[in-house]
Amino acid sequence: MVKTIKQLADELGVSKQTIRYHIKSLPVKFTGKDSKNRITITSTGAKIIKEKVVKKTVHFTGNKPQQKNFLPVNKEEQESSLLKRLDLLEQTYHEQLASKDKEIARLHNTLDQTQKMLDQSQQLQLIAEKKVEELKKISDRPAKKEKDHQKPWWSKFF
User: Fold this and answer.
1) Distance CA 53, CA 47 (A)
2) What Å distances lie between residue 105 and 70, 92, 110, 115, CA to CA?
3) What integer pLDDT is reported at residue 143 of this predicted model?
4) How far does CA 116 lie from the centroid of its chain?
5) Complete DSSP assignment for 119-131
6) What is the distance between the alpha carbons of residues 20 and 41, in angstroms, rounded to a whole number?
7) Distance CA 48, CA 105 (A)
8) Region 29-46 average pLDDT
9) Which helix (H) or strand (E) holds 32?
10) Are the beta carbons of 41 and 3 closer than 8 angstroms?
11) What is the β-pairing status of strands 58-61 and 64-67?
């Protein structure tokens, strides 16, 4: 279930600013915006924030601070909870790694295409320069013939 910052803050009994602080450390995929342009948090993101907030929340009863007991009490439950968190982190890292691999592959493809286009451009430029040289040679030849034609007609006999 998607929750807003205010809903999650009210549920955990903390300020909206505390929730905003913890959102900064969440991966982007756990947050979003609703139709009213309010920041929303997925249920997985809410669980992560809840775990962080519960660890830091301290209630004062009399003069003795006591931490809320939302965390598992026995070792098996603690290990299970930690393993779940590790699995979630591992899954997140694998997803990020896969998306980065796709991005790298896309960039390599773009680089290859750019290199091909550069090679083609250079080949076309070389062909164009050769044609210009050929045209210069051809244009130089008729100029010599025209000089021969400019001689008087009787010079052909002598």
Assistant:
1) 10
2) 44, 20, 9, 15
3) 52
4) 24
5) HHHHHHHHHHHHH
6) 10
7) 32
8) 89
9) strand 31-33
10) yes
11) antiparallel
Convert the pLDDT of each residue in 39-65 to its tens digit.
Answer: 999 988 988 888 888 776 554 334 444
Pair of tokens at residue 110: 């773009």
What's the distance, CA 7 to chain centroid? 30
Cβ(30)–Cβ(40) under 8 Å? Answer: no
Q: State the amino acid at position 108 in one-letter form.
A: H
Distance (Å, whole) CA 137 – CA 2: 77
Q: Which helix (H) or strand (E) holds 83?
A: helix 75-149
Angstrom distance (rounded) from CA 158 to CA 146: 19
72 sits in the region (left: phi over 0; alpha: psi -120 to 50; else beta) called beta
Using CA atoms in the order 81, 83, 87, 89, what is the torsion angle rounded to 10 degrees? 70
Six-digit token string for 87: 């699995």
Residue 141, both tokens? 């030849």
Helix (H, G, I), strand (E, B) or coil at 118: helix
For 84, the token pair is 């779940």
Report the SS3 class of residue 51: helix
pTM > 0.70: yes or no: no
